[in-house]
Amino acid sequence: MDAGLDLVEVSPNVDPPVCKLLDYGRFKYQAQKKANEARKKQKIVEIKEIKMRPTIDIHDYGVKMKAVQRFFEEGDKVKVTIRFRGRELAHQELGMKLLDRVQVDTADAAKVEQWPKMEGRQMTMVMAPK
Questions:
Q1: pTM of model > 0.85
Q2: How many Cβ atoms sit within 10 Å of the Cβ of residue 94?
Q3: Which of 37, 88, 113, 124, by CA, is between 20 and 30 Å from 12?
Protein backbone atom coordinates (compact mmCIF):
# COMPACT_ATOMS: atom_id res chain seq x y z
CA MET A 1 0.00 0.00 0.00
CA ASP A 2 2.53 2.56 -1.06
CA ALA A 3 0.57 5.81 -1.53
CA GLY A 4 3.63 7.93 -2.40
CA LEU A 5 3.34 10.00 0.76
CA ASP A 6 6.06 11.17 3.12
CA LEU A 7 6.05 11.62 6.89
CA VAL A 8 6.77 15.34 7.45
CA GLU A 9 7.46 16.89 10.86
CA VAL A 10 5.25 20.03 10.95
CA SER A 11 6.16 21.52 14.35
CA PRO A 12 9.08 19.88 16.12
CA ASN A 13 9.21 22.24 19.13
CA VAL A 14 5.92 21.17 20.74
CA ASP A 15 5.46 18.18 23.02
CA PRO A 16 4.65 15.75 21.41
CA PRO A 17 6.01 16.77 17.96
CA VAL A 18 3.38 17.06 15.21
CA CYS A 19 3.81 15.07 11.98
CA LYS A 20 1.72 14.76 8.79
CA LEU A 21 1.48 12.32 5.95
CA LEU A 22 1.75 14.27 2.69
CA ASP A 23 3.51 14.53 -0.65
CA TYR A 24 6.70 16.43 0.28
CA GLY A 25 7.48 17.59 -3.28
CA ARG A 26 4.04 19.15 -3.62
CA PHE A 27 4.37 20.69 -0.13
CA LYS A 28 7.69 22.37 -1.10
CA TYR A 29 6.20 23.60 -4.40
CA GLN A 30 3.21 25.21 -2.66
CA ALA A 31 5.45 26.84 -0.04
CA GLN A 32 7.61 28.30 -2.82
CA LYS A 33 4.53 29.61 -4.66
CA LYS A 34 3.28 31.26 -1.45
CA ALA A 35 6.68 32.93 -0.90
CA ASN A 36 6.75 34.22 -4.51
CA GLU A 37 3.23 35.63 -4.13
CA ALA A 38 4.20 37.43 -0.94
CA ARG A 39 7.30 38.88 -2.63
CA LYS A 40 5.17 40.13 -5.54
CA LYS A 41 2.91 42.09 -3.20
CA GLN A 42 5.80 43.86 -1.43
CA LYS A 43 6.30 47.58 -2.06
CA ILE A 44 9.92 48.63 -2.25
CA VAL A 45 10.24 52.18 -0.92
CA GLU A 46 12.48 54.27 -3.11
CA ILE A 47 14.04 57.65 -2.36
CA LYS A 48 13.27 60.11 -5.14
CA GLU A 49 15.33 63.30 -5.34
CA ILE A 50 14.12 66.78 -6.23
CA LYS A 51 16.84 69.36 -6.93
CA MET A 52 16.25 73.10 -6.65
CA ARG A 53 18.18 76.34 -6.43
CA PRO A 54 17.56 78.97 -3.72
CA THR A 55 16.36 81.45 -6.37
CA ILE A 56 13.77 79.12 -7.94
CA ASP A 57 10.87 80.81 -9.75
CA ILE A 58 7.27 80.44 -8.50
CA HIS A 59 6.10 78.40 -11.51
CA ASP A 60 9.14 76.11 -11.42
CA TYR A 61 8.52 75.57 -7.69
CA GLY A 62 4.90 74.60 -8.47
CA VAL A 63 6.04 72.03 -11.04
CA LYS A 64 8.50 70.51 -8.56
CA MET A 65 5.81 70.38 -5.84
CA LYS A 66 3.44 68.48 -8.18
CA ALA A 67 6.18 65.90 -8.72
CA VAL A 68 6.77 65.67 -4.95
CA GLN A 69 3.04 65.10 -4.32
CA ARG A 70 2.99 62.36 -6.96
CA PHE A 71 5.98 60.65 -5.32
CA PHE A 72 4.21 60.69 -1.95
CA GLU A 73 1.04 59.22 -3.50
CA GLU A 74 3.17 56.37 -4.91
CA GLY A 75 4.54 55.75 -1.40
CA ASP A 76 8.11 56.88 -2.07
CA LYS A 77 10.35 59.02 0.14
CA VAL A 78 11.57 62.35 -1.25
CA LYS A 79 14.98 63.94 -0.78
CA VAL A 80 14.80 67.68 -1.45
CA THR A 81 18.19 69.13 -2.40
CA ILE A 82 19.00 72.84 -2.63
CA ARG A 83 22.21 73.42 -4.58
CA PHE A 84 24.11 76.65 -3.94
CA ARG A 85 26.37 78.16 -6.62
CA GLY A 86 28.92 80.92 -6.19
CA ARG A 87 27.80 83.76 -3.95
CA GLU A 88 24.51 82.00 -3.12
CA LEU A 89 26.53 80.08 -0.53
CA ALA A 90 26.67 83.27 1.58
CA HIS A 91 22.83 83.28 1.77
CA GLN A 92 22.03 79.89 3.22
CA GLU A 93 18.97 81.37 4.92
CA LEU A 94 17.28 81.49 1.48
CA GLY A 95 17.71 77.74 1.15
CA MET A 96 16.39 77.23 4.68
CA LYS A 97 13.30 79.36 3.88
CA LEU A 98 12.71 77.33 0.72
CA LEU A 99 12.91 74.02 2.61
CA ASP A 100 10.55 75.39 5.28
CA ARG A 101 8.13 76.33 2.49
CA VAL A 102 8.39 72.80 1.03
CA GLN A 103 7.68 71.36 4.48
CA VAL A 104 4.60 73.58 4.98
CA ASP A 105 3.25 72.85 1.48
CA THR A 106 3.54 69.08 1.97
CA ALA A 107 2.53 68.95 5.66
CA ASP A 108 -0.76 67.13 4.90
CA ALA A 109 0.92 64.36 2.85
CA ALA A 110 4.34 63.90 4.46
CA LYS A 111 6.47 64.21 7.55
CA VAL A 112 10.11 65.23 7.80
CA GLU A 113 12.35 62.23 8.34
CA GLN A 114 15.68 64.07 8.24
CA TRP A 115 15.77 67.79 9.00
CA PRO A 116 17.67 70.19 6.68
CA LYS A 117 21.45 70.06 6.88
CA MET A 118 24.32 71.39 4.83
CA GLU A 119 26.54 68.92 2.98
CA GLY A 120 29.23 70.88 1.18
CA ARG A 121 27.51 73.14 -1.36
CA GLN A 122 24.06 71.64 -0.94
CA MET A 123 21.37 71.54 1.71
CA THR A 124 19.25 68.39 1.93
CA MET A 125 16.07 67.31 3.68
CA VAL A 126 14.40 63.85 3.52
CA MET A 127 10.61 63.51 3.77
CA ALA A 128 8.48 60.36 4.05
CA PRO A 129 4.78 59.91 3.24
CA LYS A 130 2.39 59.77 6.21
A1: no
A2: 17
A3: 37
